[in-house]
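Notes on consecutive records. When two proteins share a document, each keeps its own sequence and its own token line. Never mix them. Below: protein one.
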Amino acid sequence: MKAPDTGKTGDQPDQPDRQRPQAAAQDDSAGLEGKFDDEDYPAYSMGRAAEMLGVTPAFLRSLDTARLIVPQRSSGGHRRYSRYQLRLAQRARDLIDEGTALEAACRIIILEDQLAEAERINARLRRERPEGGTSLPPGQ
């Protein structure tokens, strides 16, 4: 599948990199064992990622250009993708295969990702809410 390789970055210039918020606080002391389970660890080269997804490296570069996924770089400057980023790329591929334009697919995925994060936060807050507590403290 050949994706369009536009030079546009979409209409969301302040878009954050598509990495989970908790990825920013990773502790390297977890060692190799923790990296196997870490969905945000950049374990896959561009070639391997493209092979796994059944896409071309140009497609992955187009997702980088569109800022849907911004892979980390190895010390040699090569793109490295996490499992989380590969799931986003797979979703983009599915949407594009269905006829959705690249920019629209990226926007859909970003909104889906933001919704999922909001739902995770809401679920956590519900679990942490004191028994019988139904409202926020004054001023919030």
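Protein two starts on the next line and is unrelated to protein one.
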Amino acid sequence: MADRERDERMARRERERSLPPVTGRDRRVRLDQPMVPRRSPLPEYDPEAFGRLSERIARFLGTGRFIVWMTVVIILWLVWNTTAPAALRFDEYPFIFLTLMLSLQASYAAPLILLAQNRQDDRDRVNLEQDRKRNDRSIADTEYLTREVATLRMNLGEVATRDWIRSELQDLLKELEQRGAVPPPADREEH
């Protein structure tokens, strides 16, 4: 048995070696061999990791700390480029480079914030669906318990209560006394 399997494996390997490699146009024709994997020219990234990074950045952009740091950087930028010696200034009066940097920051901040909002919307949608299912289960449980309580009430209506049993026993005792089968209560106490 083992020899037969070994021979089959060797024959399969020999057939695979004898076939020419799959290239170019043959790729569409040769269906008996797997395609040779090609590297994609596009960079690969993990969308989940990128989403977490965008949320972290968006969370920071929405803090007072970011506003304070941006204000400090802009003030330092303006002070440096107005009071520093002319040779050390890198952005003269209309502050074109500062405008460019702020525009660049805004062009990245807006999509990052939108990505973070989309992820939050997805989480909210999942949470809403889970809440809806939980509420449906709660309603079903409540309806079940309501039906059970109603059934118990109906069944209890048919159950003999202590007062009803007492009144029935007293009626039966009176009936037996009238027939004379049981002595009256005064005679019973003497025995």
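For the record: The chain has a mean pLDDT of 85.
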